[in-house]
UniProtKB/TrEMBL annotation:
Binding site for Mg(2+): E128, D154
Gene Ontology process terms (BP): oxaloacetate metabolic process
Necessary cofactors: Mg(2+)
Protein's name according to its UniProt entry: CoA ester lyase
Organism of provenance: Palleronia pontilimi
UniProt family annotation: Belongs to the HpcH/HpaI aldolase family.
List of residues binding substrate: R70, E128
Pfam family, one: HpcH_HpaI
A GO molecular-function descriptor: lyase activity
Gene3D superfamilies for this protein: Phosphoenolpyruvate-binding domains
Alphabetized InterPro entries for the sequence: Aldolase/citrate-lyase_domain, Citrate_lyase_beta/mcl1/mcl2, Pyrv/PenolPyrv_kinase-like_dom, Pyrv_kinase-like_dom_sf
Domain HpcH/HpaI aldolase/citrate lyase: 9-222
Protein's UniProt keywords contain Calcium: no
The keyword Protein biosynthesis is annotated on this UniProt entry: no
Amino acid sequence: MTSVLRPWRSVLYIPGSKERALEKARGLDVDAIIFDLEDAVAPGEKAAARATLADALAQGGYGSRARLVRVNGGDTPWGADDLAATMDMAPDAILLPKVDSAAQVAAVAAQLDAHPGCGDVAIWAMMETTRGVFNAAEIAQAPRMGGFIMGTNDLAAELGCDTGGDRMPLMMALQTCLAAARMGGIPCVDGVFNAFKDDDGLRAECQQGRALGMDGKTLIHPAQVAICNEVFSPSEAEIDTAKRQIEAFERAEADGQGVAVLDGKIVENLHVATARKVLAKAGA
Ligand SMILES: CC(C)(COP(=O)(O)OP(=O)(O)OC[C@H]1O[C@@H](n2cnc3c(N)ncnc32)[C@H](O)[C@@H]1OP(=O)(O)O)[C@@H](O)C(=O)NCCC(=O)NCCSC(=O)C[C@H](O)C(=O)O
Ligand SMILES: [Mg+2]
């Protein structure tokens, strides 16, 4: 669950209150699902959503898709009940919103430690506050930490910046959290693209996220899945280059060389390590 090499290309939010969407997700080609009890569920529906979601997860049928449940924050009227109910659902991970500090994560980890059946349940963090961005390095190394999800809407709201276009105003936050995730050895999944009928815009933002180094993107609608999977999957050309880099380097090593040359470019140990990650990702 915590491995960066598990695929995290497409991570779809589903409101915990929407039975039809919970059903539909069993057949969608996504790598992970965020079952949401937080922002996608209206205050008056919180309790009913918890029950609906518990039924759906008990029924199962989500296959190898990672199952993350996003609870409301501990400082809200619903946080404690969400956490108690979610621990009984035994998902793959509990996703905490608006994480500011590693201490917040540690407090939830202690509750999981004390709860039977939660031995393998990871904690993921929504990185969507300015305080969280500045504490990203310690959050990435908090107990049970499984990965980061960028919350670009909340971040933009707090920063007072524009989310559209090239996302330049968000770059510092995106890159800081990504670097912290890499330091902690956990995945980092990009924020949502709100205009779910704009395929070209989605593709451009997926490509940007991939170029930054993100493991995948969070999605809000099934229509976004195919483009996201395509962009975040290693292409045939990348797989071919990775295989040839490994072969070229192994040949060079056998000849007592530390560096190989392929297609006019040097191939060193670090390129081979990256090539192996590409192949592992493609295999996953
Ligand atoms: C955006 C939506 C409200 C649109 O819903 P709807 O009008 O029902 O869409 P469609 O009629 O086009 O739906 C077609 C079918 O697809 C199913 N569906 C829709 N959305 C989902 C979904 N997310 N997962 C699974 N299935 C879905 C419909 O049931 C239809 O099925 P069928 O009847 O068989 O045709 C809606 O898409 C939606 O609610 N999306 C999720 C919104 C959400 O979760 N928001 C919160 C997360 S984003 C966030 O919080 C970011 C972060 O915190 C930050 O700060 O940035
Ligand atoms: Mg948010």
